[in-house]
C-alpha cells in the first residue's frame, strides 16, 4: 500500500514539475553556471587542470591514485546495468549471478567483493554483509563512475582493500530539460525511465523515475554424465531468474553567495527477485524483496583563492526480506541503517595543499529471526598534504587516516608521488595500507547455517602500484603494475555437525599488470582498450591450498571497444575476453569456469531533432558463449534489445543539433 501511494506521489510531482521548471526558466539567476557539456576522459592523466575537477571527485581525493573515470552519458541506450559499464575497467571483474536484476558484485585487484567500497554520490552502499549489489543501481541514474584501484583506506575509510568506486548521479540543470527511454529485449525484459530537470525555487532540480522487469528464463545445454565420453547434452531451462524493480531519484542544487553551493539528494530503490539457489541445491519458491532509501546533503564553498570547505551528511536504510526457504534456514527480515557526517577543509599554503577530514557515523542491523541486533559507531580523522615541487612537476602526497570502527582501532597510511616529465609523459606510484573490519553478519548475526564469530580480527592489505602515463589531444595511455599482500582474511570453515563459522586463517598475495588506452582521433571515432594480467597465490599454511591460485580470479582479462559514426547514425562493438577461473581453493583445473569471449554489437540513430528521437539496437554476447556464475548456475546466452529514447531541450539554439538530456 505504501509503495503504491509513494509511486502516485512521485508521478504527481513529475507532472507538476514541468510547469514549475518552465516558470523558473524565465528568470534564471544571472550568476548561475551553465550545465557542463564536456566529455570526461576514460583514463585520468597527470597534468589535468585540478581547479576544474569537482572538489569531491576521486582525482581530488587521491591525486596520484590509479583512477579510471567512465562517462555513463556516452553509453546511453546501450548498457543494461551498471555492472556492464564497470566491466570495461582494468583489474575489475564482475561476479554475476544471473540476468537483469540478479546480484552483481565487484572484485578489484584480487580483493573480495566485501573488500571493495561502493558509494552513490558519497553515500556508502556496502551493506551489513560488506558487499555492494550493483544490480540495484540502474544506468539511468548515473553521469559517471570513478574507480580507484589499490589501497583506498586513507581517503575512503575501512573496507577499501582493493579499491573504491563512486557512482556519481546525474546533475540538475537550470534549463528546462526532459527525457525518456524504454527498452525491450530478450527474456521478456522491459526497462524504462523518465527524467525532468530545470530551475525551481531559485535553484536547479532533477526528478527521475525508473522501472523494469525480466522473466529471465532461458535454455541451456548440460552434460548430466560428465564422466562418460561423448555423452549427449541435455536441453534444460533455467527458471527462478525473474526480477522486477523501480525507484526514483530527486536532486536539488542551490547556489549561495560567495561561490558556495548546497546539493540535496533523495534516492529510492525497490526490487523483488527470485533466488535460484545453487546447481546442487536449487530452490523452488525462494525470493528476495529489498528496499533502499538514501538521503544526502552536501555544502561547499571556497574561502578566498587558497581555501575551501565542505560538509556532508547522509542516511541510508535497507529493508531486506528473504522468503520461501526451508524451515529453520530462513534468515527473516533484516533492517540495516547507516548515517553519518563528514567535514573537510582544504587550504593552499605555498607549495602545500593541506586537507583535513573529520567523519563520524553510526551503523545498526536487526534480524527478525531470534530478535538479533547489533550496532556500533565509526569515527575517523584524515590528514593529507599535496606537496608541489619544481613548478608543480613533482607532487608528493602523504595521507593518513586514524579510524575507530566499533571496538577496532585502524591505521591507514598512504604515500603517493607523481612526476610530470613534459610532452604529455608522466609517472606515478603509491604505497599504502588498508583494513576491513568484519561485517555485522560475520560478527553477530546468524544467517541460516552460517554462524557468527565475535572474535574476528580486521583484514589488512599492504598495496603498492606504479604506472607510466602519456597523453595528448588524441591519446590517453596508462601502463603499470601492482602488488598486494592480504592478511587475516576471513573465510568460513565447517563447524560440526552441519554449520559453518568464519575465522581469520586466510592470507594471499596478488600481483599483476594493467594497461588502459583511449583514442579520440575524430569527434565521430572513439576507441578504448584495457588489459589486466593478475596472479594470485593462497598463502594459507594448509598444504592442500598453499601456493594455489585464488578462486574466481581470472588471470587474463581484455576489453576492447570501438564506436564509429556521428549521432545521426553510429555503430559500436565491444569484445571482452576473460580467461578460465577456478571455483575452489584446491586448484583443480576440472573444477573451473571456462574462459569466455563476449562480443557485443550495436547501432544507434538520432533521426529527429527538437525533440531528439533516438533508436538503438544491441546484441549482447553475439557468439552465444555460455558460462556459469560462481555457484555453477548457467548465465544468459545471446540477447537482443531495442531502445527508443526521446530528449527535449526547448532552450537549445535553433542551429543546435544536440540536446542535453538531464
TrEMBL record:
PROSITE patterns: TONB_DEPENDENT_REC_3 (PS52016). It is found in: Cell outer membrane. It is a multi-pass membrane protein. Keywords: Cell outer membrane, Membrane, Receptor, Signal, TonB box, Transmembrane, Transmembrane beta strand, Transport. It comes from the Bacteria. InterPro entries: Beta-barrel_TonB, Beta-barrel_TonB_sf, Plug_dom, Plug_dom_sf, TonB-dep_rcpt-like. Its main location: membrane. Residues 61-164 form the TonB-dependent receptor plug domain. GO terms for cellular component: cell outer membrane. GO terms for molecular function: siderophore uptake transmembrane transporter activity. SUPFAM superfamilies: Porins. One of its GO terms (biological process) is siderophore transmembrane transport. The keyword Heme does not apply. Residues 1-23 form the signal peptide. Coiled coil: none annotated. Residues 251-622 form the TonB-dependent receptor-like beta-barrel domain. PANTHER family: HEMOGLOBIN AND HEMOGLOBIN-HAPTOGLOBIN-BINDING PROTEIN 1-RELATED, TONB-DEPENDENT OUTER MEMBRANE RECEPTOR. Belongs to the TonB-dependent receptor family. This is TonB-dependent receptor.
Amino acid at each position: 500500500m505504501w509503495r503504491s501511494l509513494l509511486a502516485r506521489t512521485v508521478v504527481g510531482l513529475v507532472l507538476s514539475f514541468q510547469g514549475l521548471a518552465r516558470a523558473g526558466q524565465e528568470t534564471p539567476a544571472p550568476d548561475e553556471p551553465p550545465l557542463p557539456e564536456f566529455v570526461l576522459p576514460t583514463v585520468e592523466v597527470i597534468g589535468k587542470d585540478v581547479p576544474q575537477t569537482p572538489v569531491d571527485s576521486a582525482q581530488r581525493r587521491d591525486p596520484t591514485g590509479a583512477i579510471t573515470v567512465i562517462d555513463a552519458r556516452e553509453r546511453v541506450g546501450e548498457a543494461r546495468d551498471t555492472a556492464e559499464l564497470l566491466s570495461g575497467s582494468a583489474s575489475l571483474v564482475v561476479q554475476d549471478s544471473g540476468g537483469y536484476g540478479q546480484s552483481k558484485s565487484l572484485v578489484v585487484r584480487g580483493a573480495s567483493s566485501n573488500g571493495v567500497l561502493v558509494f552513490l554520490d558519497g553515500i556508502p552502499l556496502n551493506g551489513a554483509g560488506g558487499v555492494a549489489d550493483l544490480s540495484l543501481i540502474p544506468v539511468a541514474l548515473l553521469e559517471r563512475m570513478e574507480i580507484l584501484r589499490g589501497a583506498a583506506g586513507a581517503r575512503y575509510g575501512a573496507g577499501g582493500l582493493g579499491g573504491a568506486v563512486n557512482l556519481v548521479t546525474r546533475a540538475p540543470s537550470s534549463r528546462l530539460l526532459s527525457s525518456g527511454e524504454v527498452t525491450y529485449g530478450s527474456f521478456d525484459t522491459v526497462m524504462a525511465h523518465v527524467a525532468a530537470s530545470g530551475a525551481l525555487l531559485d535553484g536547479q532540480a532533477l526528478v527521475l523515475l525508473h522501472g523494469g522487469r525480466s522473466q529471465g528464463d532461458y535454455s541451456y545445454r548440460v552434460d548430466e554424465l560428465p564422466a562418460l565420453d561423448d555423452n549427449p547434452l541435455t536441453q534444460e531451462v533455467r527458471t527462478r531468474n525473474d526480477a522486477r524493480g523501480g525507484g526514483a531519484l530527486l536532486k536539488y542544487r542551490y547556489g549561495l553567495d560567495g561561490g558556495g553551493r548546497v546539493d540535496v539528494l533523495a534516492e529510492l530503490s525497490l526490487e523483488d527477485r527470485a533466488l535460484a539457489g545453487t546447481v546442487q541445491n536449487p530452490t523452488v519458491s525462494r525470493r528476495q524483496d529489498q528496499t533502499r532509501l538514501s538521503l544526502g546533503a552536501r555544502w561547499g564553498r571556497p574561502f578566498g583563492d587558497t581555501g575551501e570547505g565542505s560538509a556532508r551528511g547522509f542516511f541510508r536504510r535497507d529493508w531486506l526480506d528473504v522468503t520461501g526457504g526451508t524451515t529453520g534456514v530462513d534468515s527473516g527480515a533484516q533492517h540495516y541503517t547507516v548515517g553519518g557526517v563528514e567535514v573537510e577543509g582544504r587550504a593552499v599554503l605555498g607549495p602545500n595543499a593541506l586537507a583535513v577530514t573529520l567523519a563520524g557515523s553510526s551503523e545498526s542491523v536487526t534480524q527478525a529471526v531470534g530478535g538479533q541486533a547489533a550496532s556500533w559507531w565509526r569515527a575517523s580523522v584524515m590528514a593529507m598534504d599535496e606537496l608541489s615541487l619544481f613548478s608543480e612537476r613533482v607532487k608528493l602526497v602523504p595521507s593518513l587516516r586514524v579510524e575507530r570502527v566499533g571496538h577496532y582501532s585502524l591505521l591507514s597510511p598512504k604515500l603517493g608521488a607523481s612526476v610530470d616529465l613534459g610532452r604529455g609523459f608522466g609517472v606515478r606510484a603509491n604505497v599504502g595500507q588498508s583494513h576491513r573490519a568484519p561485517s555485522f553478519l560475520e560478527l553477530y548475526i546468524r544467517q541460516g547455517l552460517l554462524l557468527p564469530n565475535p572474535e574476528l580480527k580486521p583484514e589488512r592489505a599492504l598495496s603498492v602500484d606504479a604506472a607510466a602515463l602519456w597523453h595528448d589531444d588524441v591519446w590517453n595511455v596508462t601502463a603499470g603494475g601492482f602488488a598486494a599482500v592480504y592478511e587475516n582474511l576471513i573465510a568460513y570453515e565447517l563447524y560440526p555437525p552441519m554449520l559453518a563459522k568464519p575465522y581469520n586463517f586466510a592470507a594471499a598475495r596478488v600481483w599483476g599488470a594493467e594497461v588502459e588506452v583511449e583514442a579520440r582521433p575524430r569527434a565521430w571515432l572513439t576507441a578504448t582498450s584495457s588489459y589486466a594480467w593478475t596472479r594470485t597465490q593462497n598463502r594459507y599454511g594448509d598444504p592442500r591450498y598453499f601456493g594455489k591460485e585464488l578462486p574466481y580470479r581470472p588471470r587474463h582479462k581484455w576489453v576492447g571497444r570501438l564506436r564509429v559514426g556521428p549521432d545521426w547514425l553510429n555503430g559500436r562493438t565491444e569484445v571482452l575476453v576473460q580467461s578460465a577461473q577456478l571455483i575452489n581453493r584446491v586448484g583443480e583445473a576440472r573444477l573451473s569456469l571456462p574462459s569466455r569471449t563476449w562480443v557485443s554489437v550495436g547501432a544507434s540513430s538520432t533521426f529527429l531533432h527538437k525533440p531528439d528521437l533516438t533508436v538503438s539496437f544491441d546484441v549482447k554476447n553475439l557468439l552465444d558463449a555460455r558460462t556459469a556464475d560462481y555457484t555453477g548456475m548457467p548465465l544468459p546466452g545471446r540477447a537482443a534489445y531495442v531502445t527508443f529514447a526521446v530528449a527535449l531541450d526547448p532552450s537549445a539554439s535553433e542551429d543546435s543539433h544536440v540536446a542535453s538530456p538531464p
